[in-house]
Amino acid sequence: MNKARPLMTGAVFLIATALPVLLHAEEPIRHELKVILQPEKNLLEVSDTIIFPESFLAASERKLHFLLHDGLQPISPMPGIKLSRETDRNQSNANPAAKGYTVTIPPGRQDFVIQYQGRITPPVSTGNRDESDGPDAGVISNEGIFLSGSTQWYPQFNDDLITFTLEVRLPEPWDAVSSGERTRHERNDGRVETRWESPQPQDEILLIGGRFTEYGRPAGSVQVMAFLRTPDEELANRYLETGGSYLEMYQNLLGPYPYKKFALVENFWETGYGMPSFTLLGSAVIRLPFILHSSYPHEILHNWWGNGVFVDYEKGNWSEGLTTYLADHLIAEQRGTALEHRRAALQKYTDYVADRKDFPLTEFRARHSPATEAVGYGKTMMLFHMLRRRVGDEAFVTALRKFYRENQFRRATFEDLRAAFAGVAGEDLKNEFTQWVGRAGAPALRASGARTQVLGARYLVTMLLEQTQSGAAYRLRVPVAVTIEGREQAYQTTVKLDTKRLGLELIVPGRPLRLDVDPEFDLFRRLDRDELPPALTQPFGAERTLILLPGAAPDALRRGYRVFAESLQRSQSGSTEIKRDDEIQSLPSDRAVWILGWENRFFPDIKTSLAGHDMTMTQDSVRIGQMEVVRNNHTIVITARHSKNSNAPLTWVSADSLAALPGLARKLPHYGPYSYLAFEGEEPKNILKGRWDVPNSPLSIPITQPDGRVIPVHRAKLEPRRALADPPVAGNH
Fold this sequence. Notes:
By secondary structure, this protein is an alpha+beta fold. The chain folds into 4 domains: 1-208, Sandwich (Immunoglobulin-like); 310-437, Neutral Protease, domain 2 (Orthogonal Bundle); 445-531, Sandwich (Immunoglobulin-like), CATH 2.60.40; 537-690, Chitobiase, domain 2 (2-Layer Sandwich).
């Protein structure tokens, strides 16, 4: 399952010769589970027939260790099976709600039956839950049921893959969803009985329950389904139609979908989980209009990456970055905004990941902070983009299909990916994977001294290109674009840079006026601050922060701003101080500063910092471009930079209504890439978002002419790029 953290199972234990063994089989263990659920009592009753692989018959040691949730009391009705609870095994690294057991199996047996019942307690309150609260506790409640592998609601022998059948009985109107194919579904005498089968190996058994209304339709050989907690045929049809279209797109791109169904399942708290053959999304999430073409295809694609080819977490999680590239980035390509998407990913890395927070991709397991997301999702996404630029679109897709075909339903690593790409590219690619996967950090580039001279009918361009990061040089293939007088299209090439300094020489077919280094953000690198617009990622990622309350604001509003400031303080990654604006003489330039309120005496500093942008501010309104936002009933957020230090962001937050501040505190971290925002009402509802222009990137430099002149010019057009796949067309499946 692709969720907030990887699963942890009994494989964390060390094995001594006197202890029961952990079975590590080449073939998966099979579970045949029969489950009775009583949600109103939080009660679970299970009979599990466990069938071991043929290789187990040859094992001399017949004692095996497994884990089971502490609230469940196991017995075995089979003669000759001995079951005992362990008391001396070190479980410090395991789920504290799980207990260890030893089962002794007579020679010649390949299976045994275990029965247990009990409660998954305590029932978790879901009122304020989100993914970070962790579903590891498991939930059986009158509100809903969520049992994952990390709940350890079934016996877990190790971290090997498993197959299963799952028969579930619940009272009407409840129903149950799991991975794989539903092969039975009946309603009799006030109860629902359903059977799910997964002949494909899995890394866990999931059981989701709720009072669902079910919708479905075929999409080729796949059944697309929706399980909603509230009947809504129109909403369901949108998901069924869109789901079928994306399934068709990804099958054409990557190969056959690995399951018989794909289902949207509405959860009873706000989540965005990708499970094998279904996705579990919260009630508010599924009703956001943009989710259909953002999170939804992302979770569909996880059935290829993460839930079709599994991740060997001990060697690094490649799945999230590859899924991001082929879902979020591909959709941006289809919309013509891929450059902005890559720049936003690099901006997150630049703003959130200080040196002490950086780590190699081999250490990425799951996202738990903006910094881990910027590395694990963003850097990995850029790795695949650079591979694509290196080998070309056709070879890139061929390598992905090869990787998928050869690793389906097994755990794969970055090394498996390297092997797939190397086989297609005809070179080992070890240097590329070593520097991007095994090394923390990123290169930083600087360009200077661009000059030209006449060379017969052509021109010679010279320039100094440097890697300015600490440590060794990266082996880079740097895109360069030259704007040539009288030509609409730029001259484009790629330069090999494997030293810290390179005196670059280019011969171009016309008079060169301007040179742009990596103009489309094709390289993973730490960006220069002047390549980026001021954005909320910068104050949220700051190491030191000062939040200034408006001393002149009415008492109630000032108290509301303090609560908002304390919320910001909890979300900041570094040290944060809260003061009134009358407690300091001037804005410091060595930290991020949040300026709260129209009444704040440092409000004019925001206007000064944004001089030159198409914006005007008064005490009653803000105009950005052609849009004016008045103070009444609106909340406005604007980010700028201190005039004395571009690394010190200034962020102004103004609310006309005290009631809008709690909602703003929840929403604001999700708008990281934006420079300015406007919201309306008490919810508050976003009505404006955007980024400031970047007029003078240090990697876009004029070329000094032979006579010493510099001729200002806009960059010429770059060669258009095709998306890796055409957008899905509804109704074509």
